[in-house]
Design a protein that fits this description.
The protein has no helices and 13 strands. It is mainly beta. Among the domains are: 34 residues; 80 residues, no CATH class. Strand 4 and strand 5 form a beta hairpin. The N and C termini lie far apart (123 Å).
Length: 191
């Protein structure tokens, strides 16, 4: 039986010719960050080819490690500037230009069973899903604009809230939703 002399051979970076070890010559999973084989900052942007790292290959991304001026969606439809706080989402459906906030569509404010919805130039009110009516500004003649109430509104009350009590000072009462004439009531003194 022939026994050959064996000894441990160590390879160092200066003994491996440049570009002789490629990705297809490495067994999958043999080089990991946890193994300590890759030195800190050894892999830089200049050493990573374009499009070689895909989202599926990134386990997690800490937002605290992202520093940029603008974050933008892949399609460009949504973006936010981390420099000045300006943003645009859904191709301008909701946007802030540093001076004004613009929104397309409707706003809803829900508190318990009460809902107020700003939509198409009117404020619509409902309670427990029942439509209470809406208020809007109309420019109809002869001397508009007018504050109008419709869709179930029978009265308009001008009132003052004191603590938790509501005091009506002036009321316009049509009696029914279809009536075109109203009764006017005034509470308190007239100045």
């Amino acid at each position: 039986m022939l026994i050959k002399n064996t000894r441990e051979v160590k390879f160092t970076g200066d003994k491996i010719a440049a570009a002789t070890i490629t990705a297809n010559k490495l067994v999958a999973g043999t080089i990991t960050a946890a193994s300590g084989i890759i030195a800190d900052a050894a892999i830089t942007n200049a050493k990573i080819a374009d499009a070689t790292i895909q989202s599926a290959k990134i386990a997690s991304l800490d937002a605290g490690k992202v520093t940029t001026g603008t974050l933008q969606s892949a399609t460009g439809n949504s973006w936010i500037s981390l420099t000045n706080g300006q943003f645009s989402f859904g191709n301008g459906a909701l946007a802030w230009n540093g001076t004004s906030l613009t929104a397309k569509g409707s706003f809803e404010a829900l508190s318990g069973s009460f809902l107020a919805k700003l939509d198409a130039g009117s404020v619509k009110l409902s309670s427990s899903g029942v439509d209470l009516g809406y208020f809007s500004i109309q420019t109809a003649g002869p001397t508009g604009p007018w504050i109008t109430a419709a869709a179930g509104a029978k009265t308009i009350n001008f009132a003052k809230l004191v603590s938790t009590s509501l005091y009506t000072a002036y009321q316009i009462d049509w009696g029914t939703t279809s009536s075109t004439s109203a009764t006017h009531r005034l509470w308190g003194s007239l100045n």
